[in-house]
Amino acid sequence: MGFSAAEQAAMRRALALAATPGVPLGPNPRVGCVLLDDAGATVAEGFHRGAGSPHAEVDALARAGDRARGSTAVVTLEPCNHTGRTGPCAQALADAGVRRVVFAQPDPNPTAAGGAATLLAAGIEVEAGLLVDDARAVNRSWTFAVEHGRPFVTWKFATTLDGRSAAADGTSRWVSSAAARLDTHRLRSLCDVMLVGTHTVEVDDPLLTVRDDDGAPLPQQPLRVVMGERDLDPRRRIFNADAETLHLRTRDPHRALAELYARDRQHVFLEGGPTLASAFLRAGLVDQVVAYVAPMLLGAGRSAVADLGITTIAGALRPHVTDIAVLEATEGDEPNVRLTLTPGHPDAPQPDGTHQDGED
Ligand code: AOF
Ligand code: ZN
Asked: Catalytic residue at 57?
């Protein structure tokens, strides 16, 4: 069999539909669907607009009406097989008389999977895998979270040339440049959790919201999460009305991530201090590192990450650099460098197999 040129073009279109700007971040993946007639012409298009709204296939079927009969459905994700917030798409496609279904990514969600088998049992031709890598990339955090049973973790930190994140007296504003801070807000907006420890809340009193160039909070905010066992002063800025806040009374990264996954969270932006960063690194629970390096020297002060249990150079963690960007200088600033890295071998043993607790 294989995929026709029209199907390949339709899948590219479906991927673009899936990534339509403005769809809110939420528990559901982004999905696009294009219905083709026998000649390969588009009958209708659809996409998913977030949890609770119709799935992409149902959206396209509704637009096609009777013209869906005999068509080929090109979908970025395996049609679902379950009744969740909405009904099963596999059944909807069969009921509409669709002849053939081409999808990119098999649904990794055990609750929803099985649509391909249902379609085949209904006598519909099914082919999978077209542009699967692109489809996974559209829903990178969702795919990761569902496959690993925990959110993806991006650890972000700002450091001086000598690896310090605060001066000896504890002051840390501002290590990175205005351009770097703005860039951080852009990255925050791609995540659904901002995570710090109780120590950071006590010492820095951060807002942890996503703000625009003028400092105004954006309408959609990640959940602010503080982990650690100590009580927090309710007057801290993190408890203001700009976003929701959750205090997780644990110091264990595994437990924190399990709790966040249970709350449908898929991408954690870890901005805690050195102890929390160290706890996540030791537990092997950092999936991406974003480091802003400022041309500044302190010579003393808090290091960006606490002890990792590494005593010799051979034991160093050596993440791979996946991107280097220069954030151009603005008035009164020097250029900063942003390094993006991934842990070298996700399954490689960590320097210390046990996970250490952290509270900052
Ligand atoms: C599809 N098409 O457009 C989407 C699918 O709670 P529900 O009912 O919205 O179901 C969410 C699950 O359904 C989600 O985790 C994923 O497995 C699948 N999403 N499936 O056929 C769609 N958004
Ligand atoms: Zn569905």
From this structure: yes
